[in-house]
Structure formats: C-alpha cells, structure tokens
Amino acid sequence: MLLAYRLALASDRVTATAIEANEFPRLAEEMEVYAVPRIAVNGVPQWDGSVPEAEFLRRVLSASSS
Amino acid sequence: MAILRAEEEAKVRELFAGLERPVELLVALGPEETPLPGARDIDFGAETLRVCEELAALGDTVTVRSEQEPEGFPRFPAVAIRPEGRDVGLRYDGLPWGYELGSLVGGILEAGKAEPTLRAESLEQLAALDRDLALDVFVTPT
Q1: Which end of chain B is more exposed for a tag (fewer CB within 10 A), N or C?
Q2: Which of A66, A65, A60 is nearest to A15 (CA)?
Q3: What is the CATH code of the structural domain delimited by A2-65?
Q4: Confidence of residue B49 (pLDDT cuts 50, 70, 90)
Q5: Range B6-127: architecture per CATH
Q6: Phi, psi of B3 (to 5 degrees)
Q7: Distances (CA, A) of B67 to B40, B46, B60, B78
Q8: Where in chain B are the domains?
Q9: CA atoms within a 13 Å half-sphere pointing along the CA-CB vector of A29
Q10: Is A59 on the interface with B (CB under 8 A)?
C-alpha cells in the first residue's frame, strides 16, 4: 500500500486508495478479490501481491497504457 | 478499548514527532454498504472517526475532522490523508483496523514527508506521465 501512496504523493496525476475488501463486498466481488493485496489500475484488476518499486511502477504504467 | 498497545502508541508518537509537515485526516461519513454477516453491529463510520482521533492525539501536527458525504468520495466511511490540508489523492476506504491500521499510519508518515521518497528513476518516469492513474489496492485487516 505504501508504494501506491508514494506514487500518489510524487505525482499530481496519480491517486491511491486502499479499499477494505470485507467492508465493500460488492466492489470486491466485481474486482475478483480472492487474495490481497489486489491491485487495480483505473478500475481494472491487474495483479495480487507486493512487488518491488521498479516492478510496481512498470506494471502500473504498462496497465494504464494498454 | 484503545486501538494501540502502549508500546505501539509510544512508537507511533515518536514517528509522528518526526513529521516534516502537518497532516490532516478528513473522515468522510455517509451511507454504508451492507457489511458482511456478523459485522452488522459495528458502526463503521463512528469507529473510523474514533481510530483517526486516537491517532491524531499522538502527534501535534496530525489533525482530524469529519464531513457528511463530501464530494468525490464514492464509498463511506473513508479517510483522506491530506498533507497540509491538501487533497493529493491519498485515501483509505473503510475502517482501518487490525493489520490495516499500519497502512493508515504509513500513509500519514509518507504524507508528512516534505519530499517524495521514490527512486530517482521512478520520479523521472512519473514526471513523464501523460495520463491519470487511479490505483486501488484491496486489503483486508487480517
């Protein structure tokens, strides 16, 4: 979660929201959250699990350009 | 019941003392989604406000306020973590408890830093960003 927050703090174009999956079950179901952390970019689920900074940014940028 | 053990409280107090700029927690309250079975007795909004108030009590530069259904919040309760009272897109949607209390504390610590803490290469890539990115990270407290 902290990496997402760091990205949002570093760029005006980025927002980062932690979403408590149990509390918003409908959204969690839509996003097919079966494991956490699950990362979604611009409303599209992408991957599960923590990754290092460079890989996180690579995945986020590649997800948003597709 | 206190949200942190005494030793955790001392640690958070120490970390908050090192904040380089003030951080405001804006607790957004409003209609809540029907929670999972067994959780319906919890007032998530009231608990979220209580957690934030207890955290704010641990740092002179951490403040908290609440609003009913402020604009731009799709879910309630939610917490906006606002460095110097500015909305920079940092949110925690839901009640931050258990393991996830650490995400909120971490968010406050990050927001309290005067400069971004990413690697230089990452900052370069972000500076070249030509589109908006909304990152949602689904978490659970256990």
Answers
A1: N
A2: A60
A3: 3.40.30.10
A4: very high
A5: 3-Layer(aba) Sandwich (3.40)
A6: -85, -20
A7: 22, 12, 21, 10
A8: 6-127
A9: 5
A10: no
